[in-house]
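G.,

No rush on this.
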Amino acid sequence: QVQLVESGGGLVQAGGSLRLSCAASGRTFSPYAMAMGWFRQAPGKEREFVATIDSNGGNTYYADSVKGRFAISRDNAKNTVYLQMNSLKPEDTAVYYCAARPGFSGRYYGSDEYNYWGQGTQVTVSS
């Protein structure tokens, strides 16, 4: 099994920044064979894709709503994925989830494409 634990959420003013981390563990977790992604879910809304990264960290993909403001990265030596969030807006307020799935490509945009999920971390952006 694979366990994912997010951290780094909190309350920030609009225009501010936060950095989320996702630590992966488990005997079946092989960082160089796992694609990783970030999703978010706001109250009353469906979970939506935010960003994804391929197994080597060489290719990243973003939702249009966060492109140019967010950056996903990974450190396979630490089994950790990051989401740097800049120029935050109130509409970015949501619970942010880390996800993982077997695969080398990062082109997995649907929540149903991921096998493993973290418990989520709350991000609140005040206006």
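When you get to it, here's the other one too:
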Amino acid sequence: QVQLVESGGGLVQAGDSLRLSCAASGRTFSNYAMGWFRQAPGKEREFVAAITWSGRSTYYADSVKGRFTISRDNAKNTVYLQMNSLKPEDPANYYCAAPDLPFGLRTSAFTTGAYRYWGQGTQVTVSS
């Protein structure tokens, strides 16, 4: 059973930084791409960042490019999302996601359909 557990959310001021973590269990973590999505109240879940199984390639939404960094530590079965220069438009529940297909994705990494497993989310709040 694949489990994803996010942590690291909280309340910060605009311009501050946060690092989210997602601990994975239940299978060989290093064989799978990972993604981060976010969902604000009343809005659809949107792509934030993704990283390939090897960690060699990363992908970002335009809205976070240059501010957020996704990384992974396969020894710790953990994927991270370093969020810098947080803005008032960044608050949301942040979810990590994992696909069912090893060494790739069934569809675009930018879509929720590429991922089968989801964590419970961690809340990020930004005060201006």
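DSSP finds no helices and eleven strands in the chain. The mean pLDDT is 95.

Enjoy the weekend,
O.
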